[in-house]
């Protein structure tokens, strides 16, 4: 059964999409079967995977609103080595349309049901808000990866996100957990970075990934070529950091699987 991870933070520009694309490519490079779900109407993950968002016959929008079958929306990112459910501006309309639909928070979870067994990892790129699309992402997920920049205001938004995750796990998706916090655009020369980093360690302990993603120009350039950094420049610091993150994500999944096997053996 594949693990579904939502990449979420209601702040924009913290590295959600960059993380989604590069983690997907890194997991795929280690022979995992990966699906990326673009849940942001900006379609940045779609474009960054080398798929033209202005030329989509079917997308996540059609899927969520019941206008197409899963396989009609599914595409392959050759540059990334993973499959993708792409998105574009049409998805903005889903927000409004879903309001009148039954089980509106669970549309994505339902749509992904048959896919879960076909992938090792399904990564969901959430939009920069706590709207119905993000709620769909969180209801569909087993875990949330929270990318954040180590700056003063980063901590402010975090409690709203953590509260939302707790509310969804108590009402709609009991298996939802914070999978990990990821420090992005990390600059150890900045003393504020180190302060915020220390605060995160004391609040979140081992939920904080040991891997940090450095500020790296290759990570910013690669999407304009429709590629993950691993394809664009596999020796770049950015590409290497995301490979390390993939290793950590896989290790955590294995530990969690072991722990739950032990727990059920003791039942
Ligand atoms: P979000 O999806 O959270 O809005 P993005 O992943 O789109 O954030 O990142 C915002 C901007 O910062 C993009 O232009 C992206 O290329 C750039 N960026 C993200 N991570 C890094 C990094 N580690 N180093 C340099 N630039 C980065
Ligand atoms: Mg984004």
From TrEMBL:
Matching InterPro entries, A to Z?
AAA_dom, DNA_Partitioning_ATPase, P-loop_NTPase
Residue span(s) of domain AAA: 3-178
What sections of the protein cross the membrane? none
**Highest taxon in the source lineage:** Bacteria
Task: Give a single Pfam family match.
Answer: AAA_31
Q: Which family does it belong to?
A: To B.subtilis soj.
Protein name (database record): Chromosome partitioning protein
Q: Name the species this protein comes from.
A: Halopseudomonas pelagia
């Amino acid at each position: 059964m594949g693990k579904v991870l939502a990449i979420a933070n209601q702040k924009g520009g913290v590295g959600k999409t960059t993380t989604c694309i590069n983690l997907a490519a890194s997991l795929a490079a280690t022979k995992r079967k990966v699906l990326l779900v673009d849940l942001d109407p900006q379609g940045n993950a779609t474009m960054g995977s080398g798929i033209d968002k202005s030329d989509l016959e079917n997308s996540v929008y059609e899927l969520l609103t019941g206008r197409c079958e899963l396989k009609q929306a599914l595409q392959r990112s050759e540059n990334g080595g993973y499959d993708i459910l792409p998105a574009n501006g049409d998805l903005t309309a889903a927000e409004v349309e879903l309001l009148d639909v039954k089980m509106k928070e669970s549309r994505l979870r339902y749509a992904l049901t048959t896919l879960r067994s076909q992938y090792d990892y399904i990564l969901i790129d959430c939009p920069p808000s706590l709207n119905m699309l993000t709620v769909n992402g969180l209801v569909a997920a087993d875990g949330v990866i929270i990318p954040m920049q180590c700056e003063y205001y980063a901590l402010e938004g975090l409690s709203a996100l953590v509260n939302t995750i707790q509310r969804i796990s108590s009402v709609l998706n009991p298996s939802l957990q914070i999978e990990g916090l990821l420090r992005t655009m990390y600059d150890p020369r900045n003393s504020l970075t180190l302060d915020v980093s220390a605060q995160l360690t004391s609040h979140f302990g081992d939920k904080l990934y040991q891997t940090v993603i450095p500020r790296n120009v290759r990570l910013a350039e690669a999407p304009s070529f429709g590629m993950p950094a691993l394809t664009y420049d596999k020796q770049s610091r950015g590409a290497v950091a995301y490979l390390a993150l993939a290793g950590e994500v896989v290790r955590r999944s294995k530990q969690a699987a072991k722990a739950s096997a032990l727990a059920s053996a003791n039942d």
